[in-house]
Write a structure and sequence with these properties.
Layout (H helix, E strand, L loop, with lengths): L9 H8 L3 H9 L6 H14 L5 H8 L4 E6 L5 H16 L3 E6 L4 H10 L7 E4 L6 H5 L7 E4 L9 E4 L2 H14 L5 E6 L6 H15 L9 E3 L5 H13 L6 E4 L2 H13 L9 E5 L13 E5 L1 H17 L7 E3 L2 E4 L5
């Protein structure tokens, strides 16, 4: 007759790893720092005993849902889709599930995220806003912990994780300059003083100035959004202006892939006639024709940092806000 195995708990894991039950709990929750060697020993014991933490019981005890929300402008955009994938995996490892909310960048939808995802529905929100201002954020009625992703609300006392858009754009432009290009266009500018578009325009202009290259407004093309078709249409507009261009910096990889489509249709060679660089480091870029050079942020660092900040905020509502800037790198491919 088969006998059932006694349930494995934290105490059994602690005994095998030769640590205290509290240390095992800290490794599982991430609420307290634990040395790498101790973490490795605890995780070995977990695997050895095939221990499965009872997250439901923990959440019930702490009066939490065990769910966090990830609010993004567009889930279909590859950059955001990759963030969803990475965050969901990291959250699962920490005992959380992820609810994805698509705002489409609409102010009313972003308001609903700030004020409606409350009442115990989620424990916290990782939020990538486009239209929210500091004043709107400070007037929000909800008190659910929030970490901003990507777009910083200047002056707001809130946790934030993102990239340095100005530096990334300057590095992209400098890469083209280092390849001997002097008539460098920029696709993706948008009106306003904040947000990704204006920040990347500042970086573009900074690199030109540093290299002693004059700024020519005819080489800058605005786009309303950052999809393939915007990049293709912007490149048509740029070429039809008749201004000399030997390289183009696109503010996203999707814009760059669209721009390259137009260049090929016009019979122009990439990079011989016009070099192209994008930004975001999406996987689609490596399969473009030709493979796309890109400014790639460390997306794993973005998602894990955002999640760690959110868990910290859930545990301690009074902790001082932190702003983290993750690194980026130029991934050089055939398009430059």
């Amino acid at each position: 007759m088969r006998t059932s195995r006694p349930p494995i708990g934290v105490r059994e894991v602690a005994n095998l790893a030769r640590v205290s039950p509290t240390t095992v709990s800290n490794v599982l929750s991430g609420n307290r720092p634990v040395s790498a060697a101790t973490q490795e020993r605890v995780r070995w014991a977990i695997d050895e005993l095939d221990y499965r933490p009872n997250h439901s019981a923990r959440n019930l005890r702490l009066q939490r849902s065990g769910i966090i929300a990830l609010a993004l402008p567009e889930v279909r955009v590859p950059y955001f889709a990759e963030l969803v994938h990475d965050l969901a995996r990291a959250a699962r490892d920490r005992g959380y599930r992820v609810l994805v909310e698509q705002t489409e960048g609409r102010t009313e939808s972003e308001h609903a995220v700030m004020n409606g995802l409350d009442r115990g529905m989620v424990d916290g929100i990782v939020f990538s806003p486009l239209g929210i201002t500091r004043e709107m954020f400070e007037r929000r009625r909800g008190n659910t912990p929030i970490v901003l992703l990507g777009e910083r609300i200047l002056g707001a006392d809130v946790d934030y994780v993102g990239t340095d858009n100005v530096a990334a754009a300057a590095d992209a432009t400098a890469h083209l300059i280092a390849r001997g290009r002097r008539h460098i266009a920029a696709i993706g500018h948008q009106r306003g003083t904040g947000g990704t578009g204006p920040q990347r325009t500042r970086g573009y202009r900074r690199a030109l100035q540093k290299a002693g290259i004059g700024y020519d407004a005819r080489l800058v093309v605005r786009t309303s959004t950052y999809h393939h078709h915007d990049g293709a249409a912007a490149m048509v507009e740029l070429l039809d202006r008749g201004v000399e261009v030997d390289a183009v910096y696109c503010y996203t990889d999707l814009l760059a892939i669209g721009a390259m489509h137009t260049l090929r249709s016009r019979g122009l060679r990439i990079p011989d006639d016009i070099a192209v660089i994008g930004s975001d480091g999406i996987d689609e870029g490596r399969y473009a024709a030709p493979p796309l050079t890109t400014v790639a942020p460390d997306k794993t660092a973005i998602t894990t940092s955002a999640l760690d900040l959110l868990i910290r905020r859930i545990a301690d509502r009074e902790a001082p806000a932190r702003q983290l800037v993750v690194p980026h790198a130029i991934v050089v491919r055939d398009s430059t």
